[in-house]
Specification:
- The structure holds two protein chains of two kinds.
- By secondary structure, chain A is an alpha/beta fold.
- Chain A is globular, with a radius of gyration of 21 Å.
- Chain B has a two-stranded antiparallel ribbon.
- By secondary structure, chain B is mainly α.
- The longest helix of chain B is centred in the middle third of the chain and has 78 residues.
- Classes of the chains: A alpha/beta, B mainly alpha.
- At the A-B interface, helix 2 and helix 3 of A face helix 7, strand 1 and helix 10 of B.
């Protein structure tokens, strides 16, 4: 009997090892919040989006929220980041803490004079690649108008292969209302940059359809 | 299209010449073309007929095999039923008729006792005293004025009255004794009647069993004789069983799905919600494994009870070993039910925590968890405990489903083979008649040349030698 059982266990073990999926099923989301100028007034909406993400993401997923300011290519701009625990009870606790941190940040945020979106995206790519998640998404909560401080270099191609970049709540600026082509060319420019970098570009302005953020 | 573009460059006359040349060529190779077309169609037709015949042969073999399996299964079933009936008869005989000699003795004793008591209770008429005739003679003596005689007569009268009273008292006493004896007979009679009634019932029961055995024996004989009626009956019974067992299985699958949903979430608390085995969450796989283990234990439990016989090894086991296995499977089932009940409790807690989080994220007021009713929690726990035991009974329809599916699958494959044969024959026939149609169309195209040939042949009749085969084909 022992002669049969041992090989049987070995075969079953081998089969189980063979079945183990090497692709990651987890999801990682990095959200960039524009804190420049008048856009800080929109942060309440960003809070709602973060709450939606906290309700949607599953144990094992990762979430990071960072601000876009003068120089966004920095870890210091990450407000809160977490990889949710595999146990649902622990994961719920982590979500509660996360939410509290974001609430505190929104309550005390200071407007930044410049908007370094590219730097934020680069920081996001770095973080997302480190998570090793199967599906990676960058959410950019901004008007997508980049305003760099003198000396900052951002006019180079960015590598964002395999990452979804979703622009959220892209508000129309005063000059956009005067000439809508500026708004369109701004979005087209970003789309071109993202696609050239190997990413997938989407714009969601209707915040009633947040479930579309994580599709694809 | 390229061929047509080539023709575009040609004039009308040239096209006509090409067409005539083409028709002449067709006419010249007419016999060979006919032969080729006929041969090609015959090849297809024969191949199809051969295939159809082969498929029908396979269908026949399968039908024979199915019939054998069906009859063997039916025979086994009837044998089991007969065995059970004989066991019942044996039990009745053992229980009631084995004690027949003692019962007979008891009955005989009762009858003797009743007989004796009855004999004792018969009324014996009182004999008149012996001196009565003497008194009668003396009473005839005329008293007259003789006071002595009157006195003697008075004494005699008194004595007679006393005697009468004594006789009456004795008669009453003997009547009371007789009634007492008759009273004693009553319970014996009741007992006798009860015993007779019991024997009557047993005999009637045996008679009914004998009728059932007779019916089963007739069925058994029909199956042994491999009669068509028996096959039809068994086949129809198999189909009915398949449908019923399938229906119960669907219900059981529904139960298993509910069971799965009850334990999948809490399993993520144990094995982690972020890990995967293949494309499936480890927690889901673990929940499924627990349910399958419960099903397996249920199967072993039923096998150990000899309710089902899916594993001959278990049903053929030594009784002691089988009883041990019964207890082991029951204990494991009990443990799994306990685990599932705990998981159901955990699920309720996690679900309420998640709901509270969702509500807080949505900005709604969170209801106090403490104030929640305990009914859903207890309900889930009870469900978690009961479902594994309920799933145990799936073993019965599963066995029926497996056994009947052999017949149903066989019937389906037979139908499929018959359909295949039909389609193959159809293709063969279509090929055969298509060849005839093509030949006719061919002749239609070269009809002018054939007409000329006919005219020429009429002018110069030439005997054409044909092979017997060609003649036959004509």
């Amino acid at each position: 009997m022992k002669k049969i059982i041992l090989p049987l266990f070995l075969v079953v073990g081998a089969l189980l090892c063979g079945c183990t999926d090497t692709t990651s099923h987890s999801r990682a989301v990095y959200m960039l919040m524009d804190t420049s100028g008048t856009y800080t007034a929109e942060l309440k909406k960003a809070q709602a989006i973060i709450n939606f993400l906290l309700g949607t993401l599953q144990p094992g997923d990762s979430l990071a929220v960072a601000r876009i300011d003068t120089g966004s290519f920095s870890e210091k701009d990450i407000i809160q980041k977490v990889t949710f625990d595999g146990r649902p009870s622990m994961s719920n606790e982590q979500k509660r803490v996360f939410r509290q941190k974001i609430d505190d940040f929104v309550a005390s945020v200071q407007a930044s004079p410049y908007t370094d979106i590219t730097g934020g995206v680069l920081q996001a790519v770095e973080y997302l690649n480190e998570t090793g998640a199967g599906r990676k998404t960058i959410l950019v909560f901004s008007d997508m108008e980049e305003d760099l401080q003198k000396g900052y270099v951002r006019d180079f191609p960015i590598q964002i292969s395999g990452i979804d970049v979703v622009a959220l709540n892209v508000t129309k600026l005063r000059q956009d209302i005067v000439d809508p082509r500026k708004y369109m060319s701004r979005l087209a420019e970003w789309e071109k940059r993202v696609n050239a970098g190997g990413g997938r570009w989407r714009v969601i302005n209707d915040l009633e359809r947040l479930e579309r953020m994580l599709e694809g | 299209m390229e061929h047509f573009s080539m023709l575009k460059g040609l004039s009308g006359g040239s096209i006509l010449v090409v067409a005539v040349v083409f028709l002449v060529l067709l006419y010249l190779v007419r016999n060979q073309a006919h032969k080729s077309i006929r041969a090609f169609c015959r090849v297809i037709n024969n191949a199809m007929r051969l295939c159809a015949s082969s498929v029908l042969q396979a269908e026949k073999r399968l039908a024979q095999r199915n019939r054998e399996v069906l009859l063997a299964g039916g025979m086994k079933e009837v044998e089991a039923e007969l065995e059970r009936e004989f066991q019942r008869v044996e039990a009745v005989v053992k229980h009631d008729l084995q004690a027949y000699p003692s019962f007979h003795r008891k009955m005989a004793d009762l009858v003797t006792k009743i007989d004796e008591d009855y004999a004792s209770s018969t009324e014996t008429p009182l004999l008149p005293p012996a001196w009565l005739s003497a008194v009668e003679a003396f009473a005839k003596v005329p008293a007259g004025k003789d006071s002595g005689v009157a006195m003697i007569l008075g004494e005699i009268h008194k004595t007679l009255e006393g005697q009468q009273k004594t006789a009456l008292d004795e008669y009453r006493k003997s009547s009371a004794v007789r009634h007492g004896l008759l009273e004693k007979i009553r319970p014996y009679c009741r007992s006798l009647s009860k015993n007779l009634e019991k024997v009557g019932k047993t005999i009637i029961g045996l008679e009914e069993r004998a009728k059932i055995i007779d019916e089963k024996m007739t069925e058994y004989e029909q199956i042994r004789a491999k009669s068509e009626a028996a096959t039809r009956k068994l086949s129809s019974s198999s189909l009915t069983q398949f449908v019923i067992a399938g229906f119960v299985m669907v219900i059981a699958i529904g139960g298993a799905i509910i069971n799965f949903n009850l334990i999948a979430l809490p399993m993520s608390e144990m094995v982690g919600g972020g890990s995967y085995i293949g494309p499936y969450k480890t927690s889901n796989v673990a929940a499924m494994v627990i349910i399958l283990m419960e099903l397996s234990m249920g199967l072993f439990f039923m096998e150990s009870l000899r309710i089902t016989r899916l594993f001959p090894l278990i049903s053929n086991m030594d009784d002691r070993l089988r009883t041990r296995m019964l207890w082991v499977s029951f204990t494991l089932l009990l443990i799994l039910a306990g685990v599932e009940s705990s998981l159901a409790f955990m699920r309720d807690r996690i679900a309420s925590d998640m709901e509270a989080l969702r509500q807080s994220l949505a900005g709604a007021e969170v209801a106090a968890i403490a104030s929640r009713s305990l009914i859903p929690t207890v309900g889930q726990m009870v469900l978690g405990f009961v479902l594994p035991f309920a799933l145990t009974f799936v073993a019965i329809p599963l066995e029926t489903f497996i056994h009947s599916s052999r017949t149903v699958l066989g019937l389906f494959v037979m139908w499929l083979l018959r359909m295949t044969a039909l389609v193959l024959r159809l293709i063969g026939n279509v090929a055969h008649y298509s060849g005839k149609v093509v030949i006719s169309v061919y002749d239609l195209v070269v009809a002018p040349f054939l007409w000329v040939e006919k005219k020429v042949a009429k002018g110069h009749p030439v005997e054409i030698k044909m092979s017997p085969k060609e003649e036959a084909s004509r």
